[in-house]
Amino acid sequence: MSATVRGYYPIERRSGEIERLHVQGAALAADAARMLDLIGVAGGWRCLDLGCGPEGITDLLSARAGSSGEVVGLDADSVFIDHARLRAQQRLGSNLSFIVGDAYATGLPDGSFDLVHSRFLASTAREPEKLLQEAMRLTRPGGVLAFQEPDIETLHCIPAHPAWQRLRQVLGEIFPLVAGEDRLAHQLFGLLRRHGFEDVQYRPFLVGFRSDDPMVDYLPATAESVRGKIFELGLMTPADLEATLAACRAHLADPGTVSNFHTVIQVWGTAPALREAERAPG
Q: Which of 11, 69, 80, 256 meets the CB 3.0–4.6 Å disulfide criterion with 54?
């Protein structure tokens, strides 16, 4: 596989991308909150959201960490971070801070967070093992590492439509090609266990939409956000993409049509109290 294809986050920050991500975050908020409650995030926790985009789950973390805690959001996109900082400044007594940085090499101190979280980064960017190593390094002994990653195989539209299926097929080809990983979400449970994490949990969830739901445009909007990769990889022509987007949106706007987001797989575990290198010999 060409090195020019692998190793690049394919989603472009186009006009409307910040709004798309906020709509997505709102649709997934209830289940993200449930995960944090099961983890037990509480007052005084220091939390990191890797690849937070324009907000991520930093608002949910902030509410749980409270005034005695701290929440840090990190993303490589400075426009996303500027947007997140502005939103945080509008909240009195905010415990939020945001950093422009590389999720694979943050430069943050070892073991400095009670919770390290990442959503939709490991399976859509590159080198998930490298990301895992950095996230592990940042998690304190006894702290929690949590991932939320997609299983795109469960995307469905009822009744089925050729335009929907075409866009689904294209997205299903792009992310494994670019990230070099396929179905990573299903591997995370085993990965954390193999790295010595304890009490590793596995929680998939699925949300669905009717024609009037803000998330109903998820599939065509995501396809628009990766149009550069679609054309670069020769998966569709510009005219073909525009026609397919229009047909898909017309079908989704029909009150008789329902669709669902891909399954989101939540995996989290507790970092061992002693790292392997710290264990006494013998």
A: 80
How many C-beta atoms surround the C-beta of residue 277 within 10 A? 5
- Whether the CA torsion 239, 241, 247, 249 is positive or negative: it is negative
**Beta carbons of 145 and 268 less than 8 angstroms apart:** yes
Q: Model-level pTM greater than 0.70?
A: yes
Compute the residue count for the chain. Answer: 282
Strands 258-260 and 156-158, by their bridges, are antiparallel
| Average of per-residue pLDDT values in the chain | 89
Task: Give the DSSP letter string of 238-273.
Answer: HHHHHHHHHHHHHHHTSTT-EEEPPEEEEEEEEPPS
- Convert the pLDDT of each residue in 215-247 to its tens digit: 999 999 989 988 998 999 899 999 999 999 999
How far apart, in whole angstroms, are the C-alpha atoms of residue 142 and residue 112?
11
- Bridge partners, 70 (sequence order): 46
Contacts of 104 (CB under 8 A, 6+ apart): 127, 130, 131, 134
> Is the pLDDT confidence value at 92 over 70?
no
Cα end-to-end distance, the chain, whole Å: 44
Burial class (CB in 10 A: 0-12, 13-18, 19+), 109: exposed
